[in-house]
């Protein structure tokens, strides 16, 4: 699919017409990660004529470009090739850990098919492009697997690294905190030793600190306390203008923009749609198929959903941003009908193609980034 799209790709801000595979796999945010790997972060935030912060590298966390730069150093590969190699390797590792995680809750065949869905999901091309998603998913799946196995001290490594890979450390801190609360309430029937209590609380605190660390570092280096938040908000300015981040308002702002301005219908239709989607999601969380995944994975999915609802503005990147909810593939994999399973794979492949056409391929001034 990537090769077909590259063969018809016209000249764009990142490549000439008909780019080779590796160049095509490094467009969009891949260039920002390359800037971080080769030049680091600006000490002074770029400002527009109106004095507002402009898009800059502080929105892209350092762990992935650091790993790619290390691979470049020891292999002498160029960025384009090293970045694809790192993403593919972490994608493979993520799939392996995902299978082990599913197998701890579901039957062998169901776990294997859940892994198939994980590998052919609509946004799974992210496993082969210069984005941090595959590295983050590996670390996330490893941390969740260790949580399920109650190996808390081992969790510290992936928890800290993933907080510097993708900005969702606060979501994991919430999930971990809820995990501690749940284990405390069921301690009489499930056991919760003092050693486990101390270890799990430690992981929660470390996750919280790690989640706040990058915004603090950005503020310290640039001298602007809200440098990270101000930088992130520049990506939604084209939609709703310059606004301050007020938690739990972005999705309602998005509903107003997508329905009121883009579709030219009543914004109330957007608000109602959002409420209905949230209600259906909440109901699904209590369905038998999702409950079979276990409390830990459900706590993560709900925590991440709350995090997105609090800070993320819905636009074309939403499909990619939903990838950390991948454990829900375990719920989709449970029907055993062969027709259903073949149909799901074909559907996901079709959605892959649609996602690539809409989000990855560039057509002139493209406002639908992946």
Could you please describe the fold and organization of this structure?
The protein is 66% helix and 0% strand. It has 370 residues and is mostly helical. It has one domain. The protein is globular. The model has no long low-confidence stretch (mean pLDDT 96).
Summarize the SSE layout with pairings.
Elements: H1 2-8, H2 21-24, H3 29-39, H4 63-75, H5 79-103, H6 108-119, H7 133-148, H8 152-163, H9 169-185, H10 187-190, H11 194-222, H12 227-233, H13 237-240, H14 250-262, H15 267-285, H16 288-291, H17 295-311, H18 318-321, H19 329-332, H20 338-360
Helix pairs in contact: 3-4, 4-5, 5-6, 5-7, 7-8, 8-11, 9-11, 9-17, 14-15
Structure summary, number of beta strands = 0
Residue stretches low in confidence (pLDDT < 50, at least 5 long) are none
Strand content: under 5%
Sheet with the most strands, sense and barrel status:
none
**End-to-end gap:** 15 Å
SS content category: mainly alpha
Number of helices: 20
Element-level helix/strand string: HHHHHHHHHHHHHHHHHHHH
Supply Rg.
21 Å
Binned, the helix content reads: 55-70%
Mean pLDDT: 96
Would you kindly provide a brief summary of this structure?
By secondary structure, the protein is an all-alpha fold. The protein contains 20 helices and no strands. It has one domain (2-45, 54-360).
Give descriptors for this structure.
370 residues, mainly alpha
């Amino acid at each position: 699919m990537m090769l077909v799209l590259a063969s018809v790709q016209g000249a764009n801000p990142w490549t000439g017409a008909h780019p080779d595979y590796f160049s095509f796999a490094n467009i969009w945010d891949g260039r920002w990660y390359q800037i971080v790997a080769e030049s680091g972060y600006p000490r002074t935030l770029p400002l527009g004529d109106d004095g507002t912060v402009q898009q800059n590298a502080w929105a892209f966390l350092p762990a992935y470009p650091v790993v790619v730069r290390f691979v470049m150093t020891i292999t002498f590969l160029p960025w384009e090739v090293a970045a694809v190699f790192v993403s593919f390797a972490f994608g493979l590792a993520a799939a392996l850990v995902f299978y082990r995680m599913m197998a701890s809750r579901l039957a062998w065949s169901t776990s294997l098919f859940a892994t198939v869905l994980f590998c052919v999901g609509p946004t799974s091309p992210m496993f082969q492009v210069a984005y941090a998603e595959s590295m983050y998913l590996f670390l996330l799946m490893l941390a969740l697997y260790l949580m399920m196995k109650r190996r808390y001290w081992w969790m510290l490594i992936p928890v800290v690294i993933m907080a510097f890979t993708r900005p969702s450390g606060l979501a994991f801190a919430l999930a971990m905190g809820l995990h501690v609360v749940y284990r405390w309430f069921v301690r009489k029937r499930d056991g919760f030793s003092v050693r486990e209590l101390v270890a799990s609380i430690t992981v929660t605190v470390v996750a919280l600190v790690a989640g706040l660390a990058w915004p603090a570092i950005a503020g310290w280096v640039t001298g602007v306390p809200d440098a990270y938040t101000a930088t992130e908000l520049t990506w939604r300015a084209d939609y709703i203008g310059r606004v301050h981040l007020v938690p739990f308002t972005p999705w309602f702002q998005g509903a107003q923009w997508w329905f009121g301005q883009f579709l030219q219908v009543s914004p109330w239709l957007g608000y109602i749609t959002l409420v209905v989607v949230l209600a259906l999601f909440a109901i699904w969380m209590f369905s038998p198929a999702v409950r079979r995944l276990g409390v830990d994975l459900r706590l993560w999915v709900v925590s991440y959903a709350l995090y997105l609802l609090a800070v993320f503005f819905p636009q074309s990147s939403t499909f990619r941003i939903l990838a950390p909810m991948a454990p829900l593939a375990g719920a989709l994999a449970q029907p055993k009908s062969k027709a259903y399973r073949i149909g799901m794979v074909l559907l996901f492949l079709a959605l892959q193609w649609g996602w690539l056409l809409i989000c990855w391929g560039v057509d002139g001034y493209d406002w639908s980034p992946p």
